Amino acid sequence: MDHLEIPVALSVIRSSMKKNSTYSNMRSPNLLHSTLLVLAIATFHFVSFLACSGEKDEPSILEIRDLMDSGHLAESVQKAKDKAIKTGKTDQVHYLRGWIYYLRKEDAAAEKEYKLCLKENKNSIDCLRGIAQLEKNKQNYEKSETRYKQALIIAQASGDKEYTSMLLTDLGNLSLAQDEREEAIDWYNKSVQVKPEGSAYYGLGFVNLLNRDKLSSVQFLKKGLETEYRDLIIKAETYYLLAKLQNDFEKNPKAASESAKKAFELFPAMEKYSKSWEQYSKLSRSN
After folding, report:
1. CA 90/CA 102 separation, integer angstroms
2. Each residue of 118-158: pLDDT tens digit?
3. Could you tell me which of 120, 82, 124, 122 has the C-alpha nearest to residue 99?
């Protein structure tokens, strides 16, 4: 199932930051200039990806998700400036810089920025999560889990359901990366109990597919599509996986075609979505 590009793809996973949580700060024009420069680099990186999206070696789904999320950087820069003026703290400047380095796969530089962030604010969920992601990429799973759980404790103490749900899903993805399926299911279930969201249901759907329970997989994917998604690319991937199951398992190419079309409409840059839509449409017409 190499076409699925799910959290098990260890070396290429780049989990996204919460859309409204990139509150970087700037105290001086020099800091503002440097952050805007980073924004320009990130934007160039995203545009470069789109120009090459048809090449054979495409970025993974989760890498694409991160690049899409970089569009929120302009808002983050302004929030950073406002916060720096009020507090004088630059922890979120380091977070924003670390995140950009992370997007560029400069993990050592990203880790340095995240650690500088935590020196100023040891309770920064963003930077704890950022380090957890870097440790996961290096397959240092125990260290990654420790950091995720540190961030989770802070999120739960503050009553932030969005962060709590996201971190529980992160822990599910971490378990799945180690093929600990029962643990992954437990984390995903905890996530949707806090806040029903499509990414966790996608995880549940995929784990059940790995366990050869295709019926449950379909049910979880459909349930996820009834909720909100933090990331539209994961919603598109849900439709894509559902389409395959509808065609191969349910023997319903018409429904598969409709699902594949929705995946394509959400993210037409992905060639596999257009190909699956075309394939299932032909099958539905021939029946």
Report:
1. 18
2. 999 999 999 999 999 999 999 999 999 999 999 999 999 99
3. 124
Question: 3-state class of 264 per DSSP?
Answer: helix
Structure tokens that stand for 2 in this block? 């190499």
182: Cα separation from own chain's centroid: 21
Please tell me the distance from the alpha carbon of residue 255 to that of residue 242, in angstroms, as a whole number: 9
Q: What does the pLDDT look like over 176-221, one tens digit per residue?
A: 999 999 999 999 999 999 999 999 999 999 999 999 999 999 999 9
- The model's pTM is 0.75
**Quick one: which of 170, 161, 177 has its CA closest to 130?**
170
Determine contact, residues 242/222, Cβ cutoff 8 Å: yes
Q: How far apart are CA 107 and CA 111, in angstroms?
A: 6
User: How far is Cα 241 from Cα 186, in angstroms, rounded to an integer?
Assistant: 22
Q: How many residues does the chain have?
A: 287
How many alpha carbons lie under 13 Å from residue 25 in its C-beta half-sphere?
15
